[in-house]
Specification:
The chain has 3 domains: about 80 residues, Winged helix-like DNA-binding domain superfamily/Winged helix DNA-binding domain (Arc Repressor Mutant, subunit A); about 110 residues, D-Maltodextrin-Binding Protein, domain 2 (3-Layer(aba) Sandwich); about 90 residues, 3-Layer(aba) Sandwich (D-Maltodextrin-Binding Protein, domain 2). The strands form 3 sheets. Strands 4-3-5-12-6-13 form a 6-stranded mixed beta sheet. The two termini are about 50 Å apart. Helices cover about 40% and strands about 20% of the residues. Helix 9 crosses helix 10. The protein has about 300 residues and is α/β, with parallel strands linked by helices. The chain contains 11 helices and 13 strands.
Length: about 300
């Protein structure tokens, strides 16, 4: 028996008859006519293949099947009523909700431990699921509720997706200590003459730095692609390759390796990162609490600039 084919109002009628002991008092409780209550009871009897209530004098006595169902139906109706009463409200101290956030690996590493600490301080029973971001599905996943929020660079989205900037970081270049071809400052000619490691989750195409180079008609030689900044940092330390990333990513990936951190040799705008959420949860208290927590956590990372709404 599929729930979608059942009129749930029938269980409200059942509960009223069970509590009140008859059709007449149940109709008064529900503000329905007696024929309407009788009709609903007849439908429920047919649905469950049981008389449910049998008349003994002026009372409607529940059958064994009805008594077995009564407690479950009462609890279920009570839970639904409680849910509707508290719709739009959210208490982090008592909530056991799971929030799902989509991020890139670099952001997960840099802010997730701090986010978890803040969640545990204010919402001890709330869980967080951090998942890989799929850019082509981001808007759909935010709309459906599969994701509560997402964190990524500037992306083309419809007006149904809200965003707030959380950081704007400059690019830097990693090179190994005692690099034989980098005795002095890194200029653009030296940058283009060397080979590079690109950190990306995509199978083809360049990075933000390649877009900046392309605007002035330049390209670089990408020797290897990898998915993690820590891996790129290790590759740099064992080769003459360079790796370009944001300053925050470089500091995290390079903290156990003594690669040089050099300015990117081309004037370019800082790489902006945004928090995304769907407009259908703009006024949702739970989502609002979580995204505010994410915003505060991201904005307190080292070297992040002040946020601004867009």
């Amino acid at each position: 028996m599929h729930l979608s084919r059942i009129d749930l109002n029938l269980f409200t009628v059942f509960d009223a008859i069970y509590r009140e002991g008859g059709i007449t008092p149940a109709s008064k409780r529900l503000h329905l006519s007696q024929p309407a209550v009788s009709h609903s009871l007849a439908r429920l009897r047919e649905l469950l293949d049981d008389p449910l209530f049998e008349r003994h004098g002026n009372a409607m006595v529940p059958t064994p099947r009805a008594r077995a169902l009564a407690a479950t139906i009462s609890r279920s109706l009570g839970a639904l009523e409680h849910m509707m009463h508290n719709a739009g409200q959210f208490d982090p101290a008592t909530s056991d909700r799971t929030f799902t956030i989509a991020v890139r690996e670099a952001h997960e590493f840099s802010f997730l431990p701090t986010l978890l600490q803040r969640v545990r301080e204010t919402a001890p029973n709330v869980d967080v699921a951090c998942v890989r971001i799929e850019r082509r599905d981001l808007e759909e996943d935010l709309q459906s509720g599969d994701l509560d929020v997402g964190v990524d660079v500037a992306l083309p989205m419809s007006l149904d997706v809200r965003r707030e900037r959380v950081s704007a970081e400059p690019l830097v270049v990693l090179a190994r200590e005692n690099h034989p071809l980098l005795k002095g400052p890194l200029d653009l000619d030296a940058y283009l003459a060397l080979e590079h490691v690109l950190v990306t989750g995509r199978r083809r195409g360049g990075g933000y730095e390649d877009v900046a180079l392309g605007r002035i008609g330049l390209t670089r030689r990408i020797r290897i692609r990898c998915q993690q900044h820590a891996a790129a940092c290790e590759i740099v330390s064992r080769s003459d390759l360079l790796a370009t990333m944001t300053r925050n990513q470089a500091e995290l990936a390079n903290r156990h390796i003594e690669n040089r951190v050099l300015p990117f040799p081309l004037e370019t705008a800082p790489l902006e990162t945004f928090l995304y959420w769907h407009s259908n949860v703009q006024d949702d208290a739970a989502n609002g609490w979580f995204r505010q927590l994410v915003l505060e956590t991201l904005s307190t990372r080292p070297h992040d600039s002040s946020t601004s709404a867009t």
